[in-house]
Write the structure tokens for this entry.
Amino acid sequence: MPVSNLSAAPGPQARKAEAQEVESVTIRFCGDSGDGMQLAGTQFTNASAMLGNDISTLPDFPAEIRAPAGTLAGVSGFQVHFSSHDIHTPGDKLNTLVAMNPAALKTNIKDLESGGILIVNSDAFTTSDLHKAGYKANPLEDDSLKGYRVYKIRINTLNREAVADMKLSPREADRCKNFFALGLVFWLYERSLDPTLRWIHQKFGKNPAVLEANTRTLKAGYNYGETTEALPVHYRVPKAQIKPGVYRKITGNEAIALGLVAAANLANMPICCASYPITPASDILHHLSELKRYGVRAIQAEDEIAAIGMAIGAAFGGSLGVTGTSGPGICLKSEAIGLAVMTELPLVIIDVQRGGPSTGLPTKTEQADLLQAMFGRNGECPVAIVAPCSPADCFDMVFEAVRLAISFMTPVFLLSDGYLANGAEPWLIPKVDDLPKIKVEHPTKGNGNGNGEAHFLPYKRDERLVRQWAIPGTAGLEHRIGGLEKEDVTGNVSYDPANHEHMIKTRAQKIANIANEIPELAVNGPAEGDLLVIGWGGTYGSINEAVKNAQKKGHKVAQAHLRYLNPMPKNTGDVLKRYKKVLVPELNTGQLRLLLRGIFLVDAVGLNKVQGRPFLVSEIEAKIEEMLK
Amino acid sequence: MSTATSLPTLTAKDLASDQEVRWCPGCGDYSILAQMKKALAPLGIPREKMVFVSGIGCSSRFPYYMNTYGFHSIHGRAPTFATGLKASRPDLTVWVITGDGDGLSIGGNHLIHAIRRNIDMKIVLFNNEIYGLTKGQYSPTSRLGTRTKSSPLGSIDNPLRPLSLAIGAEATFVARTVDVDINHLTETLRRASAHKGTAFIEIYQNCKIFNDLVFEYATDKSIKADNILHLEHGKPLIFGKDRNKGIRLHGLDPEVVTLGNGITVDDLLIHDEKAEEPSLAYLLSRMVYPRFPECFGVFRAVERPIYEDTLNKQIDDAIRTKGRGKLEDLFAADDTWVVA
């Protein structure tokens, strides 16, 4: 994309000092929730991704849209890990922290490495804001920050000067200050301003004053870094050596929306997604609502139950029915999921997990809905469950969810989480022709044997125990389905005791049969050894890096990651038995561990964290070391 | 799929499924089932294009007895399944069968939202003022003081008026009929079927076992003429065995008057089912026996954009103006870069 004509952005050749080259860097922008930290972080991520770094992000924001300004509760942060090699996590310790006010400093400083760069907006360290953050003395004036390289920059003042002659109100002017900080950090890490300048043009094209103000302050921040000697060093993170191809940045929620549309498109079937707004899943509904020209019917329902009801109704009519929500929404949908199990209709249920129980921690991540997905319904009610392991993997796994739902006429859960949903990474854009085709068949002829049997038998099954998907509008196949127990084959209402048990077992076996059509569990590392670290979902990256570090130290440790949780891959039991010990890190109190112990009689040990935040690599590494002692 | 060039000719019998009907002897549901088949058979709608969706309760067994597509769903949620179905398959004729407990208690939320969206589906609420399938508890339409197993001293919940609720939810078609008046019932179902948009029909339905004769005032031939009023569009509101009573407006309230002594037909309210504002329909829906005669017929029948038409038009317009989306464009919609 030609970008150079948009601006006279400073280029690297203009620099005075040569930049130091480093392998990877983790930085965090933090400030008040109204300070535009998510935007600054996103722009920094885009610029880094387009420069060719591998990236991984961790947005962290409060549930309140605007908590009182300056308070600890209102702090919003965005962490970016960018690297010249393959990375899987947003980083443990921060190399650089940008703090826009005292509250942000207070809540984030503990994550900054010793000797790390701390850029603070010194204008915000007023008596009042210090008080709101609970500081008795100004930390910029005592020696409490002496372990860091502190750069006190008067960002409010410099920003206002940058837009001084534009006749903006102080409030309007201050709104741009995140871009001053961003410009400065762009200089610090030698990023191009072009992607952000292009974004400013797109976003504010109709508002020339705002366009101009943001452009000026972004450049002013950059030039401040370059021309003053406020920061004595700057850094370069070279391009990562990653698989060739065309890339874009993608969040888990974006990947889910794209995967759904791709799967429906390749299956040549209409898609109907009905959802009720809920954090952190709403973005899926937002993305799908924009994709009308891809034939997507996106419906905002009146509540969670209505949303799944609409999705099931659409599935009955022959559409790909989808509903997306978070844990509290799943609670409300449970009865309808049971109906979809009973009526054996395809359905994709997306649960973007957040901290629970109840309303819990709406904007924070957790993995505590696994057992709810497995068992959280009345009766014996098996569903298929898949779980993506990274933001980009959400595309592949939602595609799998669609494939399994249609192929086995069953509801399929996709368990994402807040970390995957909002986190971003580069995505190698797949070639459409390489994507699997999903076969959809709606019968047009009866399946009865003609000898006194009904013309159409809605619960007659194939050898995999899957019934046919006959849809309204097909003459001669009129039939009735519902939540009452069915007689097998005919689908007539049946209270027969033996039939009920037969149907319970049949529904369970149908789900178990999915194991024949999914990949086996792969192992990273030795095929047998002292320790297997097995996880599921968004913890993949942290486990992967921890295991690799342990392997580098010579430990016989391997990683396995379950992307299919019900049924699990056929070789799961074999894999577990090949290691002396099994460690299960989870962001819950041990839900997968309970399943593994119950199903495979393996003495699995848990590493459990429920703080609304992902694992640090170091936390898992420490547990590995402890278990190998 | 059949592309019928001539209208199929169905009889009521063609619409009967092979399932044994299992309502209690004497239940009003039998009549509704029979009139539904009679009403729909001659309309030229192919059987395979009809879908009956229901919730839970006695009335919700209805779909099993129709030889059409059917979905017996979960308690109170039938309008949601019907919405997803109709929104994605506008070619289908969708009927929702519900009851006073299913539709107004556990499913009240879905009912009002389906109605406000004006999805082209027909919602038939069998109102028997009692819970039947759970064996006789009071329902959201039971009159104050109704003694049941769960209200041994008489119910203390103020009853809902289904039609007032539907009108409040911006219904475009609202009607009331009764199980035993088979001609009126058939005609009302046909009117609903012809309506474009959500049609909401309340049917007074007798529960022989748990609430027998609760609508006797409106069905007993010897007294009903004085207790009910048949609405006719453009006609004055007259009722009574001798057709000498009527409804007049007193301030903002209706009052019953007897014609004569200076009161003429010209003083009476004229029914207007097409009135843009629902005030008259609402006023009529508030008339409750014994203070007033209760109205039967079509209260309101107006046109408004249909949800699925608008939904699908937005999609068609997007495709027409921007072209049908290609996956390659979708994947590369954000900034991309090449790694060589």
Notes: Chain B has ten helices and twelve strands.
